[in-house]
Amino acid sequence: MTRSIKKIQEMYSNNEQIVAITSYTAPMSFIADELCDIILVGDSMEMVLYGNKDTTSLELDCIIKHARTVSNYTKNAFVVCDVPFSYYEKSPESAFENISKIIKNSGVDAVKIEGGIEFVPTIDFLTKRGILVMGHIGLMPQRVRFHGSYKTVRDNESDFINKAKQLQDAGVFSIVLENIPPDLAKNTTKVLSIPTIGIGS
């Protein structure tokens, strides 16, 4: 089965490990496609490829260009693209317009949005219109200027799990848990009925 959300859902139902990796380029995507289930076209390219101090200056046209390259060189893995900072925060309608551009011009299968309860209305709006959305909570690199560092997030467990549940209810097909304590990641994963993807968690 190739490039299908059904493949990810079946792996989760069968309790199989889901392997995800970030890629921005054709050579890396060609290799990752044979080894991974999900490829994320991450906004971290702004730091890794372009040498900027954080991800917040990444433009929509830039990530679309990389996402199109990754998508073109990927036949098997499910391709997800980060929505860059400032392209989904204004309103659900504005987010839909920008994300539609990403999908139409890159051919990716889904998008990823950083944020918790504050973006539930936006995610609900998107998923009801047929857009597959991956959630992302814990450490959120797009907010590093606000938090001041990339330190481990130590939220109250019940609050954090409630946040994850609300994203699930809004229709995300999976949630990235970034840089949170292992026990919190484990307990969050246990209560959800969708896959979680750990980044340093």
What does this structure look like?
By secondary structure, this protein is α/β, with parallel strands linked by helices. It contains 9 helices and 7 strands; from the N terminus they run αβαβααβαβαβααβαβ. The protein has helices at residues 5-13, 26-32, 45-48, 60-72, 92-106, 120-127, 144-147, 157-170, 182-191, and strands at 20-22, 38-41, 78-82, 110-112, 133-138, 174-178, 196-199. A 7-stranded parallel β-sheet has the order 1-2-3-4-5-6-7. β6 (174-178), α9 and β7 (196-199) form a beta-alpha-beta unit. α4 (60-72) packs across α5 (92-106) and α8 (157-170) crosses α9 (182-191). The longest helix is centred in the middle third of the chain and has 15 residues, at 92-106. The protein is globular, with a radius of gyration of 16 Å. The model has no long low-confidence stretch (mean pLDDT 96).
Helices and strands, in order, run as HEHEHHEHEHEHHEHE
pLDDT under 50 segments (min length 5)? none
Q: What is the 3D shape?
A: globular
Radius of gyration: 16 Å
Mean pLDDT level: 96
Q: Indicate the percent of residues in helices.
A: 40-55%
Q: Beta-sheet strand percentage?
A: 5-15%
Q: Give the class from helix and strand content and strand pairing.
A: alpha/beta
Terminal Cα span: 29 Å
Keywords:
9 helices; 201 residues; 15% strand; seven-stranded parallel sheet; single chain; 42% helix; alpha/beta
Task: Summarize the SSE layout with pairings.
Layout: H1 5-13, E1 20-22, H2 26-32, E2 38-41, H3 45-48, H4 60-72, E3 78-82, H5 92-106, E4 110-112, H6 120-127, E5 133-138, H7 144-147, H8 157-170, E6 174-178, H9 182-191, E7 196-199
Parallel strand pairs: 1-2, 2-3, 3-4, 4-5, 5-6, 6-7
